[in-house]
Design brief:
Distance between the termini: 28 Å
Low-confidence stretches: none
Strand order of the largest sheet: 1-2
Number of strands: 2
Number of helices: 8
Strand content: under 5%
Largest sheet: 2 strands, antiparallel
């Protein structure tokens, strides 16, 4: 049950959603004006580009989707589990995400579109890391599911039905973190432009190394 969620899950979810909010706002403010943390809008834009015969856009949007998918595939290959629990290779995935974001920052500074694909791949890595824990679906790079869970819970409250407080809490945690990350990312972008990506890169890299040390000491 979601009530069994340990405290570290909430802390980790907030940090990862904050990172995703920063990365996505940089994508929107970039020369490509492209979301990279989720694929619903990107897939709709791809459909429109195909219908209108805009070959360049079809290629670019298709590569964003393929990059996110490749990141998720790599995460699945490394972690090898669909359940969120300590002991898996999350540190490796976090360090890889950090390296992808650093490389993306360097490429975007020269207006190289491949930077967007690396950022999307980093988000695919991250989103695939945290999937299911005790019946709770946890997604840190997009909010549709969190707003849906929140709406369902609020609807149950209006009907006087029982609601799991932790489900409400995890929804608020991820929504607030993604929004806060977006605000921080937008503010930083006006000062540091694409160097803003080094902030989430540092956060994920440090977290990955710390997790690796933690795992080593627990053996």
């Amino acid at each position: 049950m979601i009530s069994k969620l340990p405290k570290w899950v909430g802390i980790g979810a907030w940090a990862l959603a904050f990172v995703a909010g920063m990365v996505n706002v940089v994508g929107f403010l970039s020369f490509e004006h492209q979301a990279v943390t989720h694929l619903t809008g990107t897939t709709s834009m791809l459909g429109a580009a195909i219908a209108e015969g805009r070959g360049r856009d079809v290629m670019g949007l298709g590569l964003v989707i393929a990059s996110f998918l490749a990141g998720a595939m790599l995460s699945g290959f490394i972690i090898q589990d669909s359940a969120l629990r300590l002991g898996r290779r999350y540190g490796v995935v976090l360090v890889l995400e950090s390296l992808l974001l650093c490389t993306a920052a360097f490429l975007l500074r020269t207006h190289h579109t491949s930077g967007m694909y690396l950022a999307a791949g980093a988000c695919g890595l991250q989103n695939a890391m945290a999937t299911t824990y005790s019946g709770a679906v946890i997604r840190t790079t997009h909010l549709s599911g969190m707003f849906t869970d929140l709406g369902i819970s609020l609807g149950h409250l209006l009907r006087g039905l029982p609601v799991e407080p932790r489900r409400l809490r995890i929804s608020w945690i991820i929504i607030s973190a993604f929004l806060t990350g977006g605000i921080a990312g937008a503010a930083a972008f006006h000062w540091w432009s694409y160097n803003t990506l080094f902030i989430p890169a540092a956060l994920t890299g440090l977290a990955g190394m710390a997790y690796g040390i933690y795992r080593h000491t627990r053996r």
